[in-house]
Amino acid sequence: MALPPVPATATHLLADAAARAPEAEALVCGDRRLCYAEYAGCVGAFATELRALGAAGERVATVLPNSLEACIAQFAVQVAGAQLAPLNPLYTDRELGQILADAAPRIAVVDETLADRVAPLARAAGAQEVIVVGGSSRRLDAARAGALPDAPDPGALALLQYTGGTTGRAKGVNLTHRAIMTNVAQREALLPTRGGGERILCVMPLFHSYAMAMGLYLAAYARSCLVVLPRYQPQEVLRAIARERITIFPGSPTIFAGLMAHAEFASTDWRTVHTCYSGAAPLPEDTLRRWRDAVGAPVYEGYGQTEAGPVLSFIPVGGAVKSGSVGVPVPETEIQIVDVETGTRVLGVGARGEIRARGPQLMSGYRNRPQESAEALRGGWLHTGDIGEVDADGYLFVRDRKKDMAIVGGYNVYPREVDEVLFMHPDVADAAAVGAPDAYRGEVIRAFVVLRAGARATPEDLVAHCRANLAPYKVPASIECLPALPKTTVSKTDKQALRAQAAR
């Protein structure tokens, strides 16, 4: 399958939309609305300001909730020739401090509600400027007539997306303009949109790779409207569907399940919605069936990773929908199943092994992590750490994870980071966290600890300690105190035994 046109950079993507559909509605957030000419003008004005502050060739961190400011700022950073580092506003000071220290941004763009907390952390990490936006501080849609500056080099780094790590520290994924924009076109090839005719609802957090790929960039490529909700609230989502005449709804298993459980779901008018996407976590077959029967629109499930731009495969529009499958590779992408021991022996149809992928959308590597980069990228292949199989038609099925990771409500959580936080507590002698099945979130974290002799900390105390140091979705749903953790024959913590115990 041939690729549709590939924009060279984010500048080209937005400039093309503004040139071809200047008066088309581009962004909606509450009562704030922008057409594409205004959108490009806002981005151009802020990008020019960032360049004057020395952003080009540097990194700019954004800590912004879903808003018009988030959309404008994320485009403007890349248009300015800087590398965007979008960070989760829910992160604690500990988490933000570690990531900012690794990113070493020259500039930080921070929401007004977070400025008192984040600004000192950004400056401690070397940021020379902290720009506060939102609320009564500054609206980035105030200046709507800025010209887009000259486009950056397509091979330059455009995005520094942080993802969890097995060591307990987040890893920064380096992606170029060329990689990101190629992936935008790859997605379009399998999931074609109606240019100028879509209205896409964004309820996923815009700092996340899924929301950027299937919301921010998708809308601009389609010259269509992105309707942004500040946060996920089921009632507001359902009302926005009808009010804004939504045509495309990207979601996740947790969102689909939560909406179907809401009292207003049955009375919501879904007639304008013709396509739904599911990503970020495996979609249970029962959820897929119930959603499709109730809404009447197909759900196209895909698979990817931050390291892959992020889209690797999707159920193609008009293609076969196979239960449990995440579709076929996007164009110019190869997916193979290899043995888990060496990662070099390619397995046949129906055999299970590690999923590896090769294509132009892959990351350049992890920032400041040469050893982990070399381990993930071997011989031009990205080794995903996921276990899967491919059928005779080339459809991919993800069966398990090789690496120690849980997906909680669509977010990747590495239990090792939870372990490290528990070890920070003075009463904890040993600790281990694992992912456990959960009917609503897909998985939750459950932790087991061994207390020091004479310690009096309760599970509730330890949960409170985790809340102070971890984003809410990483906090264990339960913590159980044990006399000792189970060990393997080589004296390592037996995570398999703990997972079995957590699943009871």
Task: Describe, in plain words, how this protein is organized in 3D.
This protein has 504 residues and is α/β, with parallel strands linked by helices. The protein folds into 2 domains: 367 residues, 3-Layer(aba) Sandwich (Rossmann fold), CATH 3.40.50.12780; 97 residues, ANL, C-terminal domain (GMP Synthetase, Chain A, domain 3, 2-Layer Sandwich), CATH 3.30.300. It has 14 helices and 26 strands. The strands form 7 sheets. A 5-stranded mixed beta sheet has the order 11-12-13-14-15, sandwiched between helices. Strands 16, 17, 19, 20 and 21 form a 5-stranded antiparallel beta sheet that branches. It has a 4-stranded mixed beta sheet with strand order 2-1-10-9, with helices on both faces. Strand 5, helix 5 and strand 6 form a beta-alpha-beta unit. The longest helix has 17 residues. It is globular, with a radius of gyration of 22 Å. The mean pLDDT is 94.
Features:
single chain, about 500 residues, alpha/beta, Rossmann fold, GMP Synthetase, Chain A, domain 3, 5-stranded mixed sheet, 5-stranded antiparallel sheet, 14 helices, about 30% helix, globular
Beta fraction of the residues?
25-35%
CA-atom Rg in angstroms: 22 Å
Question: What is the class of the largest domain in the CATH system?
Answer: Alpha Beta
Write down the overall geometry. Answer: globular
Look at the structure and name the CATH superfamily of the largest domain.
ANL, N-terminal domain
In which range does the helix fraction lie?
A: 25-40%
CATH-assigned fold name of the largest domain: Rossmann fold
Distance from first to last alpha carbon: 46 Å
SS class = alpha/beta
Overall structural domain count = 2
The averaged pLDDT comes out at: 94
Give unreliable regions as ranges. Answer: none
Q: What can be said about the biggest beta sheet? A: 5 strands, mixed
The CATH architecture of the largest domain is 3-Layer(aba) Sandwich
Strand runs, count:
26
Count of helical regions: 14
Q: Order of strands in the sheet with the most strands?
A: 11-12-13-14-15
